[in-house]
């Protein structure tokens, strides 16, 4: 990321498995933790991405089962079992079917990023290397976390 001059903000909840050694030199990565008990409200994955992914997976699974049933040569044959490899392929296909619109909408619903930040980035056609914008985003996130602590029910 350093060579590509990309700046990254890593948003994490406070799960024990997410403990990070922040003393390591992460020059282009800033780690921010979501406030306690806010993951289901603030995390974009919980605002529609996981739901869409699971729906896509179930759709693929049902289609594959129907196709397998139609391929049976006679009624006495058993349906083939789904292997781990099959499941991995279904996961990859399901993720490909989660639309950019769903992801953007989930970020908007989470309220973590100001709407103009999302729209500006889309209009520019990709990542912005403008340090002022990155600093402003980092400040917005920090301010949001502190003020949202008092707004969560």
UniProtKB/TrEMBL annotation:
Assigned GO CC terms: nucleus
InterPro entries in alphabetical order: CenT-Element_Derived, DDE_SF_endonuclease_dom
Molecular function GO labels: DNA binding
Organism domain of life: Eukaryota
Domain DDE-1, chain residue ranges per copy: 4-107
Name of a matching Pfam family: DDE_1
Annotated protein name in UniProt: 805_t:CDS:1
Native species: Paraglomus occultum
Phylogenetic placement of the source organism: Eukaryota, Fungi, Fungi incertae sedis, Mucoromycota, Glomeromycotina
């Amino acid at each position: 990321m350093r060579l590509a001059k990309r700046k990254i903000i890593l948003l994490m909840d406070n799960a024990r498995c997410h403990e990070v050694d922040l003393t390591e030199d992460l020059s282009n990565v800033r780690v921010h933790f979501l406030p306690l008990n806010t993951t289901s409200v603030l995390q974009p994955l919980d605002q529609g991405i996981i739901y869409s992914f699971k729906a896509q997976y179930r759709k693929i699974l049902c289609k594959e089962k129907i196709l397998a049933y139609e391929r049976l040569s006679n009624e006495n044959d058993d349906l083939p079992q789904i292997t781990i490899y099959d499941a991995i392929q279904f996961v990859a296909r399901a993720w490909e079917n989660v639309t950019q619109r769903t992801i953007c909408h989930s970020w908007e619903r989470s309220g973590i990023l100001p709407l103009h930040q999302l729209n500006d980035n889309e209009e520019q056609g990709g990542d912005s290397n403008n340090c002022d914008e990155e600093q402003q985003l980092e400040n917005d996130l920090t301010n949001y976390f502190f003020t949202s602590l008092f707004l969560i029910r």
